[in-house]
From TrEMBL:
Descriptive protein name: 3-oxoacyl-(Acyl carrier protein) synthase
Length: 353
């Protein structure tokens, strides 16, 4: 059953709303800067990050919580931006709202329950929006697709409800950067194969496609299929990457597609992701238009971690909504761990395949 996307919003280094972010990405604008943090090779760490004064301040009750680390506080401030936009777009809609949010993988300096971080981000948005339930997924870049599958199940059982599916993540944390540096994964001067850390948050307002009209909600795009799978040869495994997990998710996401003409990929500058994608793509190349568009937004604002899937899905949906895209789109993400995920989208103005 297709999921209807009603609205989306984003906060990232090239835009604090979906309109700014999409325009910047389309124009090729990047916001990557050298930081004061130094990589093990002695060079400054490059990063995509939002200016600190562009993030909303913490409300008093959260600011006084001594248990929150600086990284946790940043995640709350970052997430509150698109959550505020979601609340405004939902206004006083009476339907119950459940949250399905991809959050950072364990590690770093957060040391906080991810569901609590989401609830604090809602409080910090200073709106009336409350989630009847909050479901979090901590499987890395591809965890947005776990969130979408859970939302799909929920909406199938509660067709008159609303699901907010999203992701929040940030590498703006010295512990995370130190770990990446020790693993020699950072792209700095003199390094040819590495990632640029980033940060971002994105939210998708989703409903059951067949219920949208009766709920007086107008979709901007449809998610036709979502799939997740595990890749045995993932980044932290000793097994070679054969692309089997990504091949499986493409099979699931492409099952009702005829000709994908735009692809959004979670490439972050590390060569292994392109190699894995190429293997899976070649096994399903008949499902793609020759000369299809390829987008990897991390080149504009860095690797946004667990927010990657939601951010790229939001960019795809907004392209449909603004009339700048048509046809069929595919969004694919690979986590550092075994999780792989993908979904396909079409415009709400054309029938799904």
């Amino acid at each position: 059953m297709p999921i209807a996307i009603i609205a989306v919003d984003i906060a990232c280094p090239v835009g604090l709303c979906i309109e700014q972010a999409a325009t910047s990405v389309a124009a090729g604008i990047a916001r990557i800067e050298e930081t004061n943090w130094i990589a093990p090779n002695g060079n400054p760490i490059k990063m995509g990050r939002i200016a600190n004064d562009a993030l909303p301040p913490l409300v008093e009750e959260i600011a006084q919580d001594q248990s929150l680390t600086q990284h946790a506080q940043r995640l709350i401030r970052l997430g509150s931006l698109p959550l505020k936009a979601v609340a405004e777009k939902l206004a006083e809609h009476p339907a119950p709202v459940h949250g399905f949010i991809a959050m950072p993988e364990p590690g770093g300096d957060s040391h906080c329950d991810p569901a609590t971080l989401v609830r604090n981000a809602l409080i910090n948005s200073k709106t009336k929006l409350k989630f009847a339930a909050t479901h979090v997924f901590t499987g890395g870049r591809a965890s947005t697709f776990q969130a979408l599958l859970a939302a799909e199940t929920f909406l199938g059982q509660s067709p008159n409800a609303i699901a907010v599916v999203g992701g929040i993540d940030s590498f703006h944390d010295p512990i995370l950067l130190s770990q990446l540096g020790a693993q020699e994964r950072l792209l700095t001067d003199g390094v040819q194969d590495g990632m640029i850390p980033g940060e971002g948050a994105a939210m998708l307002i989703c409903v059951d496609a067949e219920s949208a009209a009766s709920m007086n909600l107008q979709p901007i795009a449809l998610i036709n299929a979502v799939a997740v799978a595990d890749e045995p040869g993932h980044l932290t495994s000793d097994d070679p990457c054969m692309g089997d997990g990504s091949t499986e998710v493409l099979a699931g996401a492409l099952k009702d597609c005829e000709a994908v003409n735009q692809v959004y990929l979670s490439f972050n500058g590390e060569h292994l992701w392109a190699q894995e994608w190429s293997i899976a793509f070649l096994r399903h190349s008949d499902s793609f238009v020759q000369g299809h568009g390829v987008h990897h937004p991390a080149e504009h604002f860095g690797d946004s971690g667990a927010a990657s899937g939601a951010m790229m899905t939001a960019l795809s949906a907004f392209a449909f909504a603004s009339g700048k895209a048509s046809g069929e789109h595919l969004v694919w993400c690979a986590s550092d761990g075994p999780l792989r995920g993908a979904c396909t989208l079409t415009s709400s103005l054309q029938p799904a395949s």
